[in-house]
């Protein structure tokens, strides 16, 4: 059993979720409010370590009127236990789970930080060098996370699609074009070689949210 996973992201019309410098203010105010309401509705919220390093997000419902009990459990996919000591995701506004790989506990270069993180958060170990996302989903479900919002970034999004773990997509398209072959897109990673392997989707809703457009899709290849 696994959580129902909703990938939520904001992209420019040309499909970028950040520039090559890591700048990523894309959603309009109304979309940000929608995202924080969604954070309140789900049991968990998950990001990859590069998103933590680049944005230092709080991953709470702080943009809407709410209290700490409304915050979802934060989940960080961080194979080498690189979450910095001063990260906002380590504050006490919500529970945090950091998923690391076996390499992080076997290699003394990473072990100090594992011991540090264990003082503040739950650490879940799986996979040899990379977090095993299937194992992680089973663990999160057992921990009571029945609905999980995936908030990027591009690399984690691809792995989650590849494993067939995403059920639904909510994508905000902002009326802007940024370009750049080194700008992150909604889904990067290795990618598939052939269109016949593309992830099949079904459009289920189109919303005007302020100046942005929000498209909602069901993913048709889930496990
Ligand atoms: N616009 C948006 O909606 C939005 C949302 C989130 C992030 N972003 C942007 O995305 C960028 C970060 O994206 P990214 O692609 O560099 O990194 P990411 O956040 O997807 O993190 C990827 C990292 O997670 C770790 N990882 C561990 N196990 C993994 C596994 N099984 N599969 C995949 N990754 C695994 C690896 O270290 C990997 O490099 C930032 O610039 C951020 O601002 C934008
Ligand atoms: N929906 C959305 N629109 C954006 O324009 C944008 N840049 C993100 N990016 C998601 C990423 O996870 C960010 O790091 C958090 O949105 C920061 O979130 P906080 O408010 O600090 O919790 N998400």
From TrEMBL:
A GO BP entry: riboflavin biosynthetic process
Gene3D superfamilies found in the cross-reference section: Dihydrofolate Reductase, subunit A (3.40.430.10)
The keyword Oxidoreductase is annotated on this UniProt entry: yes
Top-rank lineage group of the source organism: Archaea
Pfam families, alphabetized: RibD_C
Pathway annotation from the record: Cofactor biosynthesis; riboflavin biosynthesis
Protein's UniProt keywords contain NADP: yes
Family statement: Belongs to the HTP reductase family.
Subunit (UniProt): Homodimer.
Name the record gives this protein: 2,5-diamino-6-(ribosylamino)-4(3H)-pyrimidinone 5'-phosphate reductase
Organism: Methanobrevibacter filiformis
């Amino acid at each position: 059993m696994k959580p129902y996973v909703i990938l939520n992201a904001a992209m420019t019309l040309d499909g970028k979720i950040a520039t090559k410098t890591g700048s990523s203010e894309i959603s309009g105010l109304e979309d940000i409010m929608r995202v924080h309401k969604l954070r309140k509705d789900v049991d968990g919220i998950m990001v990859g370590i590069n998103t933590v390093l680049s944005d230092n997000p709080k991953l709470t419902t702080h943009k809407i009127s709410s209290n700490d009990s409304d915050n979802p459990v934060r989940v960080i996919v961080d194979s080498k236990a690189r979450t910095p000591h001063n990260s906002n995701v380590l504050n006490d506004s919500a529970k945090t789970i950091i998923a690391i790989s076996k390499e992080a506990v076997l290699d003394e270069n990473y072990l100090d930080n594992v011991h540090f993180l264990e003082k503040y958060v739950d650490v879940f170990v799986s996979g040899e060098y990379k977090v095993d996302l299937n194992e992680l989903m089973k663990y999160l479900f057992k921990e009571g996370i029945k609905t999980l919002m995936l908030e990027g970034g591009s690399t984690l999004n691809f792995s989650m699609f590849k494993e067939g773990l995403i059920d639904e997509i909510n994508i905000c398209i902002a009326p802007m074009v940024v370009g750049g072959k080194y700008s992150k897109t909604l889904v990067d990673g290795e990618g598939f070689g052939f269109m016949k392997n593309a992830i099949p989707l079904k459009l289920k809703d189109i919303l005007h949210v302020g100046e942005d457009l929000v498209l909602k899709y069901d993913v048709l290849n889930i496990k």
